[in-house]
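[09:14] KT: can someone run the structure on this one? pasting the chain below
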Amino acid sequence: MTPSALRSWLAAALGALSVVLTVALCPPAAAQMRADFDLGAQWRINSVARLMAGLPPIYPAHKEFAASGQWKAHSAAMQAAMKKVGAERVAAMAAWRARALPSGCPVGKTLLYPFAGPDFLNAWWLFPECETFVLFGLEHIGEVPRIESMTGPQFERLMGDVRAATADFFDRNYFITENMTRQLRTAQLRGVVPLMMISMAVSGLDILRIVPLDIAGGDAKPRSKGRSLRALKGVTIEFKQPGSGVVRRVHYFSGDATDRGLARYPEFLAYVRGLAPATTFLKSASYLLHSRDFGQLRDALLDVSGYLVQDDSGLPYATLLARGWQMQLHGRYDVPIPPFERAFQPALYRAYGEQKPDKLPFTFGYQYHDYRDERSNVMVGRGPAVQLQAAGGEGLRGVSLKSSTRLDR
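[09:31] RB: done, structure tokens below
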């Protein structure tokens, strides 16, 4: 690794560790109230994010909430959870990234993260140099909580809702869809936006704007047989690192990505294809892309992705080999947990036996018992077009696999 590349990796590792340092090194007394011009009229939103994350507020109207016993207890709980995440996951993930992934945003400037829900943190921890993050899922967008308009009991319920909604992620490193249907539809906490705001706060990022995103170019409301169907909705969160002039953005879409769902808004599939070439990230994806119901999205991801980081719940391994992908395996692979046992992939199992990769130093995906569990897996790959561009270079860290036309799983 060249000195400049090493410096880049160290910066990435330190960026990932900021999630821990922000919490650990920012006691309530250190918070400073900030003026409107500091954050382009978004100081209230950043202060809401900090309060929910257990960090001191920066908006004067929020001072009294931070002085309450309820918030102090909430802050202690959130800091303890993040400290545990940092010690057991973030530092190891940053070190692994420095060894296993190329510097910068691997391909293009966009990270595509299907079925992400509100999981901005893993995207940011692993790909902090991408400029645009495109996430989508079934979870609705929601809204920024109006904390300054809340009563004491309402604020206390919001803090409790936040702890409940983040518990699975802090413990397992993924959100559970069934739980989110309840946790993100309470009177105080609604949708993925608040959880993404929390992720940005604990990562030390400044939120600049949160605005609706419409890729249809109008008020498109598809109908079938006179009955209104679920419309595609989007939101953009612009943010930056303090001291940086680079404005980054998260585009989140709430919609149905099945073949039937995409027929209602073909503009979304066109939008995804327009992201090429992109880096794609898939984890804890419920093995949806193994299903016939997601054929259009699966083909689109294979076409637009130049670089892929995923666990076994993402794109089927044999399909990647048939498309000419070169894959580097990490961790361990075994039969998926219930109820996904039928998604076992014989081709992937054989490949793990051939490559005999090292264990992952952090938990990732569904194979999880506790932080000592060593069954997690990650696959890293380059698409055929990227391999051709890299001809004569270092390639995929020396990986050489034989492609197979078989589509067995």
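[09:33] KT: thanks! The CA atoms of residues 363 and 371 lie 6 Å apart.
[09:34] RB: yep, looked fine to me
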